[in-house]
Write a structure and sequence with these properties.
190 residues; alpha+beta; 2 domains; three-stranded antiparallel β-sheet; 5 strands; flat
C-alpha cells in the first residue's frame, strides 16, 4: 500500500479508535501533571506505529519528526479538540474565537454537514425513462437437437394495426438464448 492509502486508513479508522471515549479517560484541559504526562506519552507510543508505516521511517525517527513528516497532528491535540467539541455540542458550552462567541447552533450545522456521506448529499431518480420500442423480442430459451427455439413477438405500436404478430423461429446458430434472440432480431429487421 502507498503512504497515501495508509494515511487514509489512519484517519478513517485508527485515529477514531484511539480518540473513541477520550472524553472519559482524557481530561478536557490537559494540565501538566505526572498522570496526564504519562497518558500523553502512552498516546504518542500508540500513534508511533501507524506514523512510522506512513512515513516509511526507521525506528530511530523521533515522534515529533514523524508527526511533521506525515503532516498529522499529535494525538493528544486531536483528543483535546474532540473534547472541546464534545463540551460545546453536548454540554451547551461556549467557544470564543477572535472575540466572537460561538455556541452549539453555530458549530453543529457546519460539523454535521461535513460528516454526511457524499452519496446521501444528492438524490438520483431511478425512474425508467426509456420510451417503448416498436418491436419486442422474446425467446423461450428451449434447446432441442443442438438448436435453440426462438420466439419473435413484434408489435408495431406506431401503426394503425396494433395487434401483435408473432412467429415461431428455429435458429441454427449455436444453441443458446443469445443466438435465438439475435436470430429473432435479424428476422424482424430483414
Amino acid at each position: 500500500m502507498t503512504p497515501k492509502h495508509l494515511r487514509q486508513i489512519y484517519f478513517r479508522s485508527i485515529e477514531r479508535m484511539i480518540v473513541y471515549g477520550a472524553q472519559i479517560y482524557f481530561p478536557p484541559i490537559c494540565k501538566r501533571n505526572k498522570k496526564n504526562t504519562e497518558k500523553v506519552e502512552k498516546l504518542k507510543a500508540i500513534q508511533r506505529n501507524p506514523l512510522s508505516k506512513i512515513a516509511k521511517a526507521s525506528y530511530t525517527a523521533s515522534n515529533a519528526s514523524l508527526n511533521i513528516i506525515c503532516n498529522i497532528p499529535p494525538i493528544h491535540l486531536t483528543i483535546e479538540r474532540e473534547n472541546r467539541l464534545f463540551i460545546i455540542l453536548n454540554a451547551d458550552g461556549k467557544f470564543v474565537f477572535e472575540n466572537k462567541e460561538f455556541g452549539k447552533e453555530e458549530i453543529a450545522t457546519k460539523i454535521r454537514s461535513s460528516r454526511i456521506h457524499p452519496a446521501k448529499k444528492r438524490k438520483y431518480d431511478y425512474v425508467k425513462t426509456i420510451g417503448e420500442a416498436d418491436y419486442s423480442f422474446y425467446t423461450d430459451g428451449s434447446q432441442q437437437e443442438n438448436r435453440c427455439g426462438g420466439t419473435e413477438s413484434n408489435l408495431n405500436r406506431n401503426s394503425a394495426d396494433s395487434r401483435p404478430r408473432s412467429r415461431r423461429l428455429r435458429c441454427e446458430l449455436g444453441g443458446d438464448a443469445h443466438a435465438a434472440e439475435s436470430c429473432s432480431a435479424r428476422e424482424a429487421a430483414g
